[in-house]
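During the no-cost extension, the postdoctoral fellow (Dr. R.K.) reprocessed legacy sequence entries with the updated structure-token encoder. One reprocessed record is reproduced below for audit purposes.
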Amino acid sequence: HVQLVESGGGSVQAGGSLRLSCVASGVSVAANCMGWFRQTPGEEREGVAAIDPAYNRTYYADSVKGRFTISQDNAKNTLYLQMNSLKTEDTAVYYCAKGWVVADSWGQGTQVTVS
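Re-encoded structure tokens follow.
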């Protein structure tokens, strides 16, 4: 049974930073492509960043390139999203997921509000 638990969201002023964490159980972040997604009310969920250990690659949405960094701690089986230079348009609920093009397990989400 895959369980993903996000934390680290909150309220921050524009230009500030937050680091999201996603503790995984039932799945190894070292062995699977993992992604961060976000969603605002009335909008579709969009991919923000992904990390694929099989190819040692990371992927970012154009809107966050240069500001967000995805990483993982294999020993802690945890996925991270470092978010810098936050903008008001980054306000959303952020989810971590197993997968990227096709995500089949999701966390409950953590709210990020940038004002």
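Residues 37 and 46 are 5 Å apart (CA to CA). The radius of gyration is 13 Å. The remaining legacy entries will be reprocessed before the final report is submitted.
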